[in-house]
Amino acid sequence: MTSFFNLLIILFLISPASNATNTLPVVKANQTLMKKLKVIPIGEGQLHDSFRLPARIDLDQQHVARIGTTVTGRIIETEAVLGQEVRKGEKLATLNSTELGLAQSAYLKTSSQVNLKRLVVARAKRLMGSGIIAAADIQERETMLAEAEVDLRTATDQLLAFGMSGSDLARLSKEKKIHSILPITASIQGTIVERQVTVGQVVQPADALFTVANLSHVWVVAELPEQQAGWAHKGDEAEVTIAALPNETLHGKLIYVADMVDPNTRTVTVRMELPNPHRNLKPHMLANLLIRKQGVQELILPDSAVIRDKDTDLVFVEIGSDEFELRLVKLGALNVNSRPILDGLKSGEKVVVEGGFHLNSERHRKELE
């Protein structure tokens, strides 16, 4: 019986101390400790949701031209080299094409036929005026002229498609000489970034001989996982960091979010445009793309104010000129350096954002005493 009463006494003595540990204490700071603290009032702010993706620098495809030939032939001369700056219309290579020669020959023959049939029609009209031939003969000759003119237009269109200009056709008609040499020229101003041609090579219209790109602007391209396909939208703010330029962070907005998922990678392509006046950004460089989205106004707390104790978040709240209450709070996910306040704090309350560690150490010291 004596042992039972002794146990009750022990439990009675222990229980107040146990209850004390469940209450959050108030810490009184001395002048030295106050100098180490920074206290700010809680207010509303706008957090940014963000998503980081591996990315790459790519050519701006709106300012890229893949240049080839319009006719089959053999390269007899090349003038452009990789990395060369070229102007629009500048000659890059020279082609010798028997196909072009045959097309010019067909044009000259058809042109001669048209001129001849025009003379025949004019002569027939004079004879009809004298009553020598009938109107039906005139119609027959005019029909033959119309067919020849159709053939001439077809031959003309073919030469224009092969790259000959109107002045080239005029010279051909005047000189009646076949020129099977055709220059391959740049269609835009820029830098030659690819060259797939050598002297003596036989090329066809499907071959890309040169790639010319304007490098003053480049794209940053990334692949967004299918699960987050609805997360990014055109116009979202974005930041780019590049491994080759470690001290630079480039800012911009998304200019494109694909409407379809790639069936092979199960991703959605997103794209950002960057100016590149100094050519520091080179296609195929590796990068990281951070997409930011504006959030709503809500109470936020600097992450530096949070004291972690096991699985709980605590902050010191000022309740007097030198008194601070340790309070349990419920916070949202970390976003950059701030966290949204879900419960435990009200707007305007003052919290310790620097020096909380020293206050917590003082609290432990008082508890040990």
Summary of the model, kept short:
With 369 residues, the chain is of the alpha+beta class. Helix content is 29%, strand content 39%.
Give a description of the structure.
This protein is α+β, with helices and mostly antiparallel strands. It folds into four domains: 24-47 and 297-368, conserved putative lor/sdh protein from methanococcus maripaludis s2 fold; 51-61 and 214-296, Efflux pump adaptor protein, beta barrel domain (Elongation Factor Tu (Ef-tu), domain 3), CATH 2.40.30.170; 64-96 and 186-212, RNA polymerase II/Efflux pump adaptor protein, barrel-sandwich hybrid domain (OB fold (Dihydrolipoamide Acetyltransferase, E2P)), CATH 2.40.50.100; 98-175, Helix Hairpins (Orthogonal Bundle). It contains six helices and 21 strands. It has helices spanning 2-22, 31-34, 98-129, 135-161, 166-175, 356-368; strands at 26-28, 38-41, 43-59, 64-67, 73-78, 85-86, 91-96, 181-185, 190-195, 202-203, 210-213, 217-225, 237-242, 245-257, 267-275, 286-302, 307-309, 312-318, 323-331, 338-343, 350-354. The strands form four sheets. A six-stranded antiparallel beta barrel has the order 3-12-15-14-13-16. Strand 18 (312-318) and strand 19 form a beta hairpin. Helix 3 (98-129) packs antiparallel against helix 4 (135-161). The protein starts with a helix and ends with a helix. Residues 1-23 have low confidence and may be disordered.
**How many structural domains in the coordinates?**
4
CATH topology title of the largest domain: conserved putative lor/sdh protein from methanococcus maripaludis s2 fold
Query: In angstroms, what separates the terminal alpha carbons?
Result: 35 Å
**Which sequence of strands runs across the widest sheet?**
3-12-15-14-13-16
Structural class: alpha+beta
- As a percent range, the share of strand residues is 35-45%
Runs in which pLDDT lies below 50 for 5 or more consecutive residues are 1-23
Which bin fits the share of residues in helices?
A: 25-40%
* Mean pLDDT figure: 85
CATH architecture of the largest domain: Beta Barrel
Provide the succession of SSEs. HEHEEEEEEHHHEEEEEEEEEEEEEEH
Large-scale geometry: rod-shaped
Question: How many strands in all?
Answer: 21
Major sheet size, sense and barrel closure = 6 strands, antiparallel, barrel
**Radius of gyration, rounded?**
41 Å
Q: What is the number of helical segments per DSSP (H or I, 4+ residues)? A: 6
CATH top level of the largest domain is Mainly Beta
